[in-house]
Please model this.
Amino acid sequence: MTDEIETQARHLLGATLTRGDVTVRITEVEAYGGTGDPASHAFRGPTPRSEIMFGPPDVLYVYLSYGMHYCANVVVGADGDASAVLLRAGEVVRGVETARDRRGGVPDVRLARGPANLTSALGITIEQNGATLDGPQVVLHRDAPIPAEAVSAGPRVGVSRAADVPWRFWVTDDPTVSAYRRSPRAGDAEPL
DNA sequence: CGCAGGATTTGCT
DNA sequence: GCAAATCCTGCGG
Model:
């Protein structure tokens, strides 16, 4: 189970997510286990918000964070298993002008840096919650996997519980991934 | 029915 | 570097 979610998370790196005329190449993700992960929204069992994660995989789980930002996950667990992978950052590879428009004048490498910025660049909102990944709203292509030696792993960001599990994965040295600040001195960033 | 907190980002002290 | 913005979700009474 945990092996499976890690495999799924790593496999999403390098994949491309498209909505409308904007395409993002995913460079940073975080894995969330199902009911066994205290940091997951699925931890307390199915709720109106999290029930989408308990359904079939390959759909989007979108939620509103801090009352103002949207974050997008790919549901990966089999039907009944509430695992999901949070999309934390990416590189805009198509529709850059549209993305710039939505993000208002930030440097290109920051267009989709951070989970809420990524959804903003793609124009993803709660409307896309539950959308299937083979269209028509969003399309995911997992055909450009990142070699394992080019992937780093570390503790998850912004998580209060279970922050010890190295379930954040990113493309090593990719400019669209930030060296995150609030990690007091966790021994992260070990290339695998 | 009311309360506390959150998988964040941005701007200013 | 720190604190505010802002509202929905989940839990307790």
